[in-house]
Write a structure and sequence with these properties.
alpha/beta, 6-stranded parallel beta sheet, 135 residues, 36% helix
Amino acid sequence: MKLIFGESSSGKSTEALETLKSGDKCLYISLDSDRTIKSKIDQGNFDIQYIKVEPNLMDVNIEILQRKIGTTHVIIDPINYIMKYSSISIKELVDDFSVIEDNHKIEIILVLNTLKNLETDLSNLKNIKLIKTEL
């Protein structure tokens, strides 16, 4: 699992796409309406199924489980909305997605917008690669 984090407009979504390799089949779950990333997906050479999902943990999990056949990667962008609307900590969220990742042999890439007023402690996260983007 990877967690790509940084301030707004620091290139987190683009970095998530750049982690994909040729032959990867990806489910891109958008929790906001970022038209820029949708345009990059449409113009790129990616095997990506882009969907917009309501920002709650159950809906995201259901979409992953329904669309997992043949999928190698799932990008969830941004996870801030799940944390806000599901009242769940980042550690609980990572633990939940780790189970899905392990059980279904897919790699999950999480995107986190670290707003200046968002105090996020990432040091307690285990078995996850942290990638920070900067302006």
